[in-house]
């Protein structure tokens, strides 16, 4: 969701050296990206943990002699690090009590409400005169990464010309965002039959149990890659998919950035601010009185997810693919 903002900064400052500071989980997204010259890792659980770690990181950043820090996440921590690093211009939203740490604070009253998060970032940049037209949300993999993933899929019986259906049942924020394994399996079974597709299950290390449940439901007629890919490998895998069925999650945004047609299932989260930025994406959700609650765990009966049926997802997927290929 930060990519349109990063693209805007690149377009506005074509000769600048742009460095992205990101945590270990997402830093890999920006490797080899044409908008980014360098990626620094914020290791908040290791080298940069605690007060001493923050000071160590600030010292590391000072050595780069940055002219401007563009702070996209609304965190006090990010503003504090930029301040400690003595970056002379520190630009970001006025939020979380961090206004005093910013030289250019975007007032809360001017921050747009009810729009996609990427629009908030662009509005903040525009307020300070950084405008370069609408930038698409794009990610890139290398030819070597694509070939390596093709080889791994071939070992599982998936050839280059096969229609590949990606199923992503996880969501790291919490179980409230997750649809049910048996329903993902039912959708995958139906779509694979209708499209003559091969099935691949994606997910991170914390989602292997859910993925295994789907694999069992499908009686092994799939490749389970959950917990078996790095960020870069996951990017290549999602890019290879011809269609993607997913919860609201990081892989959903990867599929959108690679313009893979997708159906995204939303429940506890706000679809108006985090929907997939792609023309060939459909959101499935049911309006219930307590959604979006934005909670990690459902305190009641998970009605926002139980109300979403496999039949609704299958119908939406078939309609979308028909329109895309039509």
TrEMBL record:
Protein name: lipopolysaccharide heptosyltransferase II
Top EC class of this enzyme: transferase
GO molecular function, one term: ADP-heptose-lipopolysaccharide heptosyltransferase activity
EC number(s) stated in the UniProt entry for this protein: 2.4.99.24
GO cellular component: cytosol
Organism: Geoanaerobacter pelophilus
Pfam families to which the protein is assigned, alphabetical: Glyco_transf_9
Catalytic activity: an L-alpha-D-Hep-(1->5)-[alpha-Kdo-(2->4)]-alpha-Kdo-(2->6)-lipid A + ADP-L-glycero-beta-D-manno-heptose = an L-alpha-D-Hep-(1->3)-L-alpha-D-Hep-(1->5)-[alpha-Kdo-(2->4)]-alpha-Kdo-(2->6)-lipid A + ADP + H(+)
Lineage, uppermost ranks: Bacteria, Pseudomonadati, Thermodesulfobacteriota, Desulfuromonadia, Geobacterales
Family: Belongs to the glycosyltransferase 9 family.
Alphabetized CDD domains for the sequence: GT9_LPS_heptosyltransferase
Family matches, as InterPro entries: Glyco_trans_9, LPS_LOS_Heptosyltrfase, RfaF
Gene3D superfamilies referenced in this protein's UniProt entry, alphabetically: Glycogen Phosphorylase B
Keywords: Glycosyltransferase, Transferase
Single GO biological process annotation from the record: lipopolysaccharide core region biosynthetic process
